[in-house]
């Protein structure tokens, strides 16, 4: 491409899928011209050059090389909120919104019974689960943990951007090690690393650029789930509830873990693609 092309020309010449090109070009328009995405249609004869055009070329090249769009634009929508994301955290997936919905249903039940529940999000990453819940319910107390200081910094930034810092507490440490042993929660939620170390998808698509520790346990994909489930009873209040996200083929193994840990009311939940994606249970 030559310098000074109109938006229309850029979109007609790009080697990216049009939906991806529009997202990246809209990011450039917002950053350099403070124009909304609708300008791609209403002002499609607008010519961009200089820094804006250079940034578009860089974004296009990085996306063609496979870099995730969410990292390139620095944000990702998730369950009615927008999160800042970067290479230090997992990109929130639509499948994980199921975990949020399950948690919110439990919160509603507890509030109807007259209590204000305490929520724990283990391995919070960008803060997606914890912040989505805090955003949806202003009364609950939410604690979010992560062993990665880089991830916690991004989660805390998101809490500030969403004006939710007063509703959430962050703690650094590996799973329950981040907590006071005396703490008890009504609901524990977690989307831990559950991809097996041999999974070829780790070398494909967006996963190549995401933090490996947030994707795989470097084993069979079940060790983090095992640790979370085995330790949950010590941190759950009486009749407390736990729900964990897992791989599409791990439901039976996770159900078995829940049974071995002495949980009751064990239930498998399907995501929008029809895959078993979450197992929940009660202490």
Walk me through the topology.
Elements: E1 5-6, H1 7-13, H2 18-33, H3 39-42, E2 47-48, H4 50-64, H5 69-73, E3 75-78, E4 81-84, H6 97-112, E5 118-122, H7 128-136, E6 141-146, H8 149-161, E7 168-172, E8 185-190, H9 223-232, E9 236-245, H10 251-260, E10 264-270, E11 276-282
Parallel strand pairs: 5-6, 5-8, 6-7, 8-9
Antiparallel strand pairs: 1-2, 3-4, 9-11, 10-11
Explain this structure.
- The strands form 3 sheets. Strands 7-6-5-8-9-11-10 form a 7-stranded mixed beta sheet, sandwiched between helices.
- It is elongated, with a radius of gyration of 21 Å.
- Helix content is 37%, strand content 20%.
- It is built from 10 helices and 11 strands.
- Strand 6, helix 8 and strand 7 form a beta-alpha-beta unit.
- The relative contact order is 0.11.
- It is α/β, with parallel strands linked by helices and 283 residues long.
- The protein has helices spanning 7-13, 18-33, 39-42, 50-64, 69-73, 97-112, 128-136, 149-161, 223-232, 251-260; strands at residues 5-6, 47-48, 75-78, 81-84, 118-122, 141-146, 168-172, 185-190, 236-245, 264-270, 276-282.
- Helix 2 runs antiparallel to helix 4 and helix 6 (97-112) runs parallel beside helix 7.
- The longest helix has 16 residues, at 18-33.
C-alpha termini separation:
61 Å
Low-confidence stretches: none
Shape type = elongated
Please count the helical segments. 10
Note the beta-strand portion: 15-25%
CA-based gyration radius? 21 Å
**Largest β sheet strand count, sense and barrel closure:** 7 strands, mixed
Number of strands: 11
Mean pLDDT: 95
Query: What is the percent of helical residues?
Result: 25-40%
Order of helices and strands: EHHHEHHEEHEHEHEEHEHEE
Instruction: Provide the spatial order of strands within the biggest beta sheet.
Output: 7-6-5-8-9-11-10
The secondary-structure class comes to alpha/beta
């Amino acid at each position: 491409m030559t310098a000074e092309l109109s938006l229309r020309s850029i979109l007609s010449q790009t080697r990216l899928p049009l939906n991806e090109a529009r997202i990246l070009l809209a990011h450039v328009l917002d950053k350099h011209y403070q124009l909304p995405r609708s300008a791609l249609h209403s002002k499609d004869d607008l010519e961009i050059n200089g820094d804006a055009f250079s940034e578009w070329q860089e974004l296009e090249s990085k996306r063609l090389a496979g870099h995730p769009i969410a990292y390139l634009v620095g944000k990702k929508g998730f369950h009615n909120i927008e999160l800042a994301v970067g290479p230090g955290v997992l990109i929130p997936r639509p499948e994980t919104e199921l975990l949020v919905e399950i948690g919110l249903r439990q919160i509603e039940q507890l509030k109807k019974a007259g209590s204000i529940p305490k929520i724990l999000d283990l391995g919070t990453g960008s803060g997606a689960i914890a912040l989505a819940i805090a955003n949806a319910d202003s009364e609950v107390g939410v604690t979010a943990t992560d062993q990665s200081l880089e991830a916690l910094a991004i989660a805390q930034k998101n809490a500030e951007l969403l004006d939710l810092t007063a509703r959430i507490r962050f703690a650094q440490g590996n799973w329950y090690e981040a907590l006071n042993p005396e703490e008890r929660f009504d609901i524990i939620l977690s989307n831990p690393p559950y991809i097996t170390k041999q999974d070829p998808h780790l070398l494909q698509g967006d996963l190549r650029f995401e933090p490996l520790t947030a994707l795989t346990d470097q084993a069979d994909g079940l060790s983090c789930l095992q640790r979370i489930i085995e330790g949950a009873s010590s941190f759950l209040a009486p009749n407390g509830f736990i729900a964990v996200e897992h791989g599409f083929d791990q439901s039976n193994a996770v159900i078995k873990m829940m049974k071995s840990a002495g949980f009751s009311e064990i239930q498998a939940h399907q995501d929008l693609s029809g895959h078993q994606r979450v197992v929940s249970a009660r202490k």
